[in-house]
Amino acid sequence: MLHVQDLHKTYKVGKLSYEVLKGVSFQVDKGEFVAVMGPSGSGKTTMLNCISCYIPFDAGDITLGDVNLANLSENELAEVRNRKLGFVFQDFMLLDGLSMKENIMLPRIISGKVSRGMEESADQLCEIFGISHIRGKYPAEVSGGERQRTAVARALINNPLVILADEPTGNLDSKSSRAVIDTFRRAKQNLDATIFMVTHDSFAASFCDRVIIMKDGVVHSTLQNPGDPGAFQSSLLAAIKEMSEEGAA
Amino acid sequence: MTSVTALYAKLRKKGFKNYVLITVCIFISILLITAFSIVMQSNTVQTVLPEGGDSRKQVTMIFSLAIAGCAMFTAYASTLFFRSKSRELGIFMALGTKKSTVARLLFGDLGLVTLVAAAAGIVLGTPMAIGIWQVFRLIVASSEMAFSLNAAAYLWPLGFALFTGLLLLVMGLRFVRRSNILDVVNEQRKSDPVKDVKGWYGIVGIAMMVLGAGGAVVLPRVMASHGYTPQAWTNLFYLLAAAGLYMLLLFVVVRGFGGKKSHYKNIITRSMMKFQGRQTVLNMCVIAVLVMAAYYAMFYTPMTLSSSNTAFASRHTDFAFHYRAGETGIPGRDSIEAIAREEGQAVSDYLEVDMANLATDGIDREWTDDGRFGDTYIEFYQEESFFSESAYNQLTGGNVDVQPGHYVFVSREGYSHNPYDYIKDMKRFTNPTTMECLPVAFQAEVSNNLLHRFILLDDTDYTQITQGLDSGWKEKWVQFDVSDPENSYTFAARLKDAIIDGSSENAAIINNYDRVEKMNAEAAGEAYEGDVVPEMQISYDMRDSGVFNTDWRYIPKFRIMDSQNLVFNIAVYLMLFIFMCIICFAAVIVIAYARCLTIALQNQQVYSDLYRLGAKRDYLYRSVRGQVARVFAVPTLVGTLIISAYYALLMYSNSGSFSPGEIQAFGVIALLIAGTSLLLWVVYRITLRKTTRMLGVDLKGVST
Question: What's domain A30-44+72-248's architecture?
Fold first, then answer.
């Protein structure tokens, strides 16, 4: 579904260069819920932005389905963002001037695939994620958790190949975080969605099928969920601690 | 809502205030430029302000500054607009909207905004110009003050609208073409901080301003006094002054002049201003420059009125006039006394003496390629007016003794010789009728405000050189006092009319009409410009105009009339300079107001966070007040100080001293500055109230 191969990205600030991604490779399969963790500066958000086609990358390949993103024009990249990817951001990125339902429908409207089914799909997603009661409201009128669940619904409206989520629980309290993670799990179970999430939150990551741990611009290790979120969170924390000690040594 | 266009329209409606802000900014810029341009291009200004003259240059300079200020202000407003649109357009892009679609939406908006603002500005600028003009006509209704509208006036606002459209187009293209979508999304949150500046920035900035302004004023005079042509490059010194202004304002924004104690006290205010530093400093620079332009225009009125009135007051007689000796219709002593009697006045100290117009030698100076003057000595060069020493002493009660073979030059108080004049170097005077010459040398200079530019000769020399002079070159000088000068206006007006009515057509010439130059031109087979250039023609039909009253060669010098008609005679200049002053201050107020509102628009989150951190309301209020006060006070203060110093330097360098009229004018200027500062303070208070209310930190019951 998503195949990243030897990805490199360097930022230039004045005369200085910072190599943030130093050859990242991994794969995400259809229907998989994968998290990426790692300390600040490990390159996880940069990697997500490259996959999202928000920033260009220097070398390597990103293949989404059967499309290699490296060779696409701006218009083709826009089409990939709209039809093959869904996005969930830490700060929700909802448009304040549109109602929650309009926000959910936005990718479909942008794609031009406006049909009677669009509103039904939006209503259905609201139903699945428990936000039907706020669909006529505006972002400023609802809670952070509700906003993020709306963002997840928006990410799914075009039936994308992958949902890319950047710290989706970063701005939420524990109750709202749990609600958003449940939303992802429901999307996976009910809609067979593929989710790729960057997070600092070991609790959120513990519900994923697999966690990729990054360090210093490369994949440090990958942990598979044994099926018990509590035990998986403990092993995640242990792995991160071990990685930190490696760094200190 | 089934299309991107429809959704965008809904977002536009929600974010209407951002559209209002940029539309109003462009509208006001074009409104001011339209009104200014209409006045500039009117027949009155085009006729009265001579092409290439100092007044025209000053007006053009202020107009240029106003346009530059409006351009910078518009660019600033455009930046704010793009910031306000960045998040929603960034999200559109992030969710897969093609850039061509984003461009279509954005340029549609920008086109509409520019069109509406430009049309409104141009349409309403016209009544604004007419309105202000008519207010002046209520005060001064001279014949030159008839309003005229020239189509050429609309070229400037149309050009500015085109500039604004292109600016928005370029900014829009840069906005859409960015490859990093996250940069677009996060644009709204971006600050434009300025780097920390060194402690010497303030002092060096001040030094650069002093050096720049001083250099631009003094250097051309120094060059000229050493025989070099003042070159245009000396104006580059103004760039040094501008850089100094930027450094000073940068220093004030980033560091301030306070010590360490105030550093911590004002840390919130200063850090917020610093993190929006580039825009803040740029805005403050524009405000300071416009304040300077406004005051420069404002100072013209008191300086002109005061200097002129002081000069009138210092005349040695109440009434004086001169006329060609051959004129027969000019009222004589009996007629004058008869008119005076009818007007309840008694004439006293009546004097009538001979004067003559002769040719002097001189230097024809032209600039050469190497930057020096190319001098050509001409024996028979130009026409000047002469008295014998005894006639002059009789008129003034003085005791000037001119040595044979010498001459004395009469100048008004505070008169400064320009470096090109030859007045102290003349070697020969020529009788233009007989072409007899009198070799002479300069003896001295005496001061008299009424007889400025007369040349005095030894009695014997005078008799000798004027022998055989045609009556057209001879003149009579008449002067007298009246019993009640304060109430002599009607008498003066009747006498003036009688003099004009009695003057022949040959005397209908302007001050600058030079019969010696005419003789030279005709000898060379050329037409004399004074006979062909329309601006150099004058007619008795124009007797009520300001131009006639300042330019007619034989205009009577009646103190009561000159004093009371001064405003009338220079009405066009006054109106233009006051108009410019109003326009520049209007721009200052709009820019400062808009800048302060953006403090509120951009910092709502910061103040909300500070409130959550436990900051009290009065602390937040004081923080906002600190920023608003800086935006208003610092550039206004700096601009006021700079222009006052610059103006004083100009006045001083004109004559090497301050005349009593200038000193008096400085007093009036101080009062005007105080009044204007009060007005700006009121605007500042209104702006502060609006800004604090927008941020929800306005004070009710907290002492300020």
Answer: 3-Layer(aba) Sandwich (3.40)
